[in-house]
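Write out this protein's structure.
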Amino acid sequence: MAYYVWTQQGATGDLQSVAQKGLGKVARLYHANGLDLYITSLRDGTIHCPGSFHYIGLAFDFRKASRVSRGMLVSTLGDDWDVIEHSTHYHVEYDPK
């Protein structure tokens, strides 16, 4: 069975290569759990807080899924990533310490 990565209309912009790789890891995790990945925000708009990593292409948002937990995402992405859980989506940003 094929699984897909969907992008919400209006979610636009290029991610930096490290964020593209992180998004690929998230997509593989979703697909391994039998899920499509639905991206809700990339490097788009002006709705993010000042200083948001979205504006520099180091953050992306995607819908939550019942079979993928925050812990699974943290384990998949590693220590250089922040994973913030919201009620409907995850916000993920590359932020090495």
